[in-house]
Amino acid sequence: MNIASVYFGRRVAPLLALGFASGLPLALTGGTLQAWATVENVSLQEIGFLTLVGSAYTLKFLWAPLVDRYVPPLLGRRRGWMALTQVLLAAGLILMGLLSPANALGPLAMIAVSSGFFFGYTRHRI
Fold first, then answer.
1. CA dist., res. 115 & res. 110, Å (int)
2. What was the pLDDT predicted at 121?
3. Which runs of consecutive H residues, i.e. helices, occur in 1-126?
4. Residue 28, Ramachandran bin (φ over 0: left; ψ between -120 and 50: alpha; else beta)
5. pLDDT digits over 46-79, tens only?
6. CB under 8 Å to 5, separation ≥6 — which residues?
7. Global pTM?
8. Calpha distance 68→31 (Å, rounded)
């Protein structure tokens, strides 16, 4: 068996896509959001509060069992939650792109927290 066939096989490609898609929000809601706020001349105190955005991901062990209890109506438990959270992550990232940290830091931070929540669940299921 060729090693390339293992990593580039038909069954591995979706996992690579899901891994990238579920890892992107952590980078965007972490350092990139803080850098964007710095460029927009947001105060250092407000930028410091943005470090709390990752709390939803960090505390996923508290809420993951509650979410595991319910099954989405389509695709079953595992695939259904992964599909739903990927759609919600995409919507959150699009909404974050439409806002400016200088004008709407509060709503932007709330969307980032919800994206962290969905990111944590997506990573929990993969």
1. 9
2. 57
3. 3-7, 13-27, 33-39, 44-49, 55-58, 60-68, 76-98, 105-125
4. alpha
5. 888 877 777 777 777 777 777 778 888 888 877 8
6. none
7. 0.68
8. 29
